[in-house]
Write a structure and sequence with these properties.
mainly alpha
């Protein structure tokens, strides 16, 4: 424990000495500029990463939707009964002489 305290004491002493040099000051200013004021600062990078992850989720959702719609399309074009059922449910179409009752759930 005493050894680590001495190590950190020496490290702090060196940092204090380096803080007064012009190189350290320029480095600190450049670092602050890049982290806060630059066009590609940390905050904007974090926002961009968040947008990328949201867009990736959207891409996955739309790919799944496309698969489901392709399946539905293939089923409707291949089966006349499925097409008739879809049209009756979706567009409330009916045969001649039939009555259609629409039940609305609240």
């Amino acid at each position: 424990m005493n050894q680590s305290a001495a190590f950190f004491g020496r490290l702090f002493q060196r940092l204090r000495q380096a803080a007064g040099t012009k190189y350290f000051i320029v480095l600190a200013i450049a670092l602050v500029w890049m982290l806060v004021f630059d066009r590609y600062n940390l905050l904007s990078q974090k926002k961009v990463d968040k947008q990328i992850s949201e867009y990736t989720k959207d891409i996955q959702y739309y790919k799944e939707s496309i698969k489901e719609l392709d399946y539905e399309k293939a089923r409707l074009f291949s089966d006349d009964e499925a097409l008739e059922q879809y049209v009756r449910e979706k567009y409330y179409m009916k045969k001649a002489g039939e009555d259609v009752f629409v039940i609305v759930e609240e």
